[in-house]
Write a structure and sequence with these properties.
It contains 14 helices and two strands, in the order αααααααααααααββα. The two termini are about 40 Å apart. About 65% of the residues lie in helices and about 0% in strands. It has two domains: about 5-55; about 70-295, MetI-like fold. It has a two-stranded antiparallel ribbon with strand order 1-2.
Length: about 300
Amino acid sequence: MKTSNGVIAMRSKKRFDIWDVLIRLALIIVSLACLLPFVHVVSKSFSEDAYVIANKVILWPEGFTIEAYKKIFADDSILRSFGVSVLVTVLFTILGMVITIFAAYPLSRKQLKGRTVLTLIFTIPLFFSGGIIPEFMNISNLGLLDTLWSLILPLAFSAFNLLIMKSSLTSSIPVSLEESAWIDGASHFRILWSIVLPLSKPILATLSLFYAVGRWNAYQDALFYIKQNTDLRPLQLKLYYLIIQASESFQLEATSVKLSNPEVLKASCVVFATVPILCIYPFIQKYFVQGVMLGAIKE
């Protein structure tokens, strides 16, 4: 014989929850809103010009062809820009993580005197910036124009990432571990290398992804700082020039091949620039999910 509590529990499970349905429906709509535009771009990149001109390509390629991708790989300037973007992104991510770790670890330790004031100083760039013109003048005076360092050094420090890293280290690294290491004679660098970093893999992967994606997608600083040396143009800047030069007769740089519709070329370039990030994300997804939750919930 079922108890009254059991009956109530069964009825509550069977009861239709309208809010649960609405939340799931909203998540589906938002997911489709993010996914369908990219599917549309991929479909255009694999479609023939005539179908794209006639606006017949929606979510499936029409007249499947890979001619646009053949022209991309035949253009040395695009492949060179891709290599520049990879090199800049790797160096930028490494430098950004080194700066963030070396700044966040001391600020997360209670032994550091004045850490509140230092944290406040580091957060000022979140609210104020010098502006584009002073930044350009600074890069010019330092002799960094038309060099890769102009794309790496100015944005290598992120106050937002610093605060995330500091919060993670404060909440996830037990003080007892550090005290035990001190008793065993470990130095600050030894503690950081052997204890803190191995226990911080989720937040390290998360911030590395933030740095890498931000640098990979950026093009405005390259537009300002890379003028004369076109060999140093990153891939996103190359895409920018392809987009603004969209016309009925578009000619790839350093080639004599003309496309009847530049939209196909633009779509294929967007896919070409997006695939590397999509290939990297699955390998760090596990750490990424853990990292974004660190410090979000306090006991």
